[in-house]
């Protein structure tokens, strides 16, 4: 069967931040030193080879770019300084754009201006909308009560609407990922049993990212784990316990203690990552794509303004608290509406799904191997 080679794929991946793939001569050193490359998952070597020969469909059909956590061992030991770790990162950006049916991810990753302008536009519109609603329903010098500038009930409804839109986008893109990597062009597909036997791994990998712990350097995994747990904790508090979080000025320690811990975790990991990318302290911080900085800036703005408005409200400075909360939402809305489904944040969902699907595929292959071979009579009848 003829194989179509696309010579433009390397140049396209370079637009997504790939390293010098022309320098790679496929020695396999990167695969040999990678603690996560085992069995049939021979990355990064295989993925880089697919890119070099322009195999778009092969690249899109593999989960291997998502099984890499970018510990940087492959890049530091590469004899040609081809930066395979950063190339794998660029493939994840390329795949994110592939899964996204809207085309927004492609715009963001190929042009930082599109991302920045979109964030600014959504932030401004959010600020105008919240101010308009606030002045129409309440008083700016009231944070809570019947005359609240932004009633918690209304904000809670807005949060759920935004979450529903976000979930619809993520589920659609995740379904496309499943189709490209597990169904498209495959004659042998996993059965329902393979999905059910491994379904517990999906939340497990989502919350713990435990494969990351297998990398030679443990600190990146710990930082990533703190970030993930902090973000998830804050999301649960906002979506499920906003009235309790909003009430005051007395502190409700049943919920606020978790909010404090989550905020500390978000600020700590953000500052740590900014310092690492600025000083290039570790291999995975050597190269920073524009989307990496957008991720960190928005995360810091949201975490900082969130705790600031909380302090202002508890101090009785309701006017300042209301204004700060509007600024907080000007960061929250573009982060959730743009960054989570279309940029860096999407990796938090695609990677655990990829690990789960890889386990499903392995389970299905083992089931097929254990199946009894048909007898000559059965084969003839078939």
Order of helices and strands: HHHHHHHHHHHHHHHHHH
Total beta-strand segments: 0
Radius of gyration: 24 Å
Distance between the termini: 26 Å
Strand content: under 5%
For the sheet with most strands, the description reads: none
Number of helical segments with 4 or more residues: 18
State the share of residues found in helices, binned by percent. 55-70%
Average pLDDT rating = 90
Residue ranges: pLDDT <50 for 5 or more in a row? none
Describe the structure.
This protein is mostly helical and 382 residues long. The chain folds into 2 domains: 9-99, Fumarate Reductase Iron-sulfur Protein, Chain B, domain 2 (Orthogonal Bundle), CATH 1.10.1060.10; 104-185 and 194-366, no CATH class. Helix content is 69%, strand content 0%. It has 18 helices and no strands. It has helices spanning 9-15, 29-33, 45-52, 56-61, 64-67, 73-76, 84-99, 104-110, 112-137, 152-183, 192-198, 201-208, 219-246, 253-279, 290-314, 318-342, 347-370, 376-381. Helix 8 (104-110) packs across helix 9 and helix 11 (192-198) packs across helix 17. It is elongated. The mean pLDDT is 90.
Helix-strand layout with pairing:
Blueprint: H1 9-15, H2 29-33, H3 45-52, H4 56-61, H5 64-67, H6 73-76, H7 84-99, H8 104-110, H9 112-137, H10 152-183, H11 192-198, H12 201-208, H13 219-246, H14 253-279, H15 290-314, H16 318-342, H17 347-370, H18 376-381
List keywords for this structure.
18 helices; 69% helix; 2 domains; single chain; 0% strand; Fumarate Reductase Iron-sulfur Protein, Chain B, domain 2; 382 residues; mainly alpha
């Amino acid at each position: 069967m003829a194989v179509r080679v696309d010579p433009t794929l390397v140049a396209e991946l370079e637009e997504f931040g790939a390293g010098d793939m022309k320098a790679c001569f496929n020695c396999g050193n990167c695969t040999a030193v990678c603690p996560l490359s085992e069995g049939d998952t021979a990355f990064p070597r295989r993925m880089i080879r697919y890119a070099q020969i322009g195999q778009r469909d092969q690249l899109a059909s593999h989960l291997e770019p998502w099984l890499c956590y970018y510990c940087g061992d492959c890049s530091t030991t590469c004899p040609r300084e081809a930066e395979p770790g950063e190339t794998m990162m660029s493939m994840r950006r390329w795949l994110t754009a592939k899964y996204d049916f809207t085309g927004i991810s492609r715009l963001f990753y190929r042009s930082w201006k599109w991302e920045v302008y979109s964030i600014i536009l959504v932030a401004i519109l959010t600020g105008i909308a919240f101010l308009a609603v606030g002045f129409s329903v309440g008083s700016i010098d009231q944070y809570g009560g019947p005359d609240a500038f932004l009633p918690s009930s209304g904000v809670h409804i807005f949060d759920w609407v935004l979450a529903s839109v976000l979930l619809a986008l993520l589920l659609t893109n995740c379904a496309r990922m499943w189709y490209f990597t597990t169904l498209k062009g495959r004659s042998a597909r996993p059965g329902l049993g393979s999905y059910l036997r491994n379904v517990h791994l999906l939340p497990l990998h989502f919350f713990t990212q435990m494969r990351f712990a297998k990398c030679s350097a443990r600190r990146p995994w710990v930082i990533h784990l703190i970030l993930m747990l902090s973000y998830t904790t804050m999301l649960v508090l906002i979506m499920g316990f906003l009235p309790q979080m909003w009430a005051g000025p007395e502190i409700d320690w049943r919920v606020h203690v978790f909010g404090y811990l989550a905020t500390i975790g978000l600020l700590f990991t953000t500052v740590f990552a900014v310092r690492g990318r600025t000083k290039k302290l570790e291999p995975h911080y050597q190269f920073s794509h524009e989307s990496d900085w957008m991720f960190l800036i928005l995360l810091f703005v949201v975490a900082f303004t969130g705790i600031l408005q909380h302090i202002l409200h508890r101090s009785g400075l309701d006017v300042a608290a209301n204004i700060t909360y509007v600024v907080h939402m000007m960061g929250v809305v573009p982060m959730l509406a743009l960054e989570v489904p279309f940029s860096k944040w999407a990796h938090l969902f695609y990677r655990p799904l990829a690990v789960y699907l890889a386990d499903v595929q392995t389970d299905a292959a083992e089931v097929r191997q254990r199946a009894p071979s048909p007898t000559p009579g059965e084969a003839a009848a078939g």
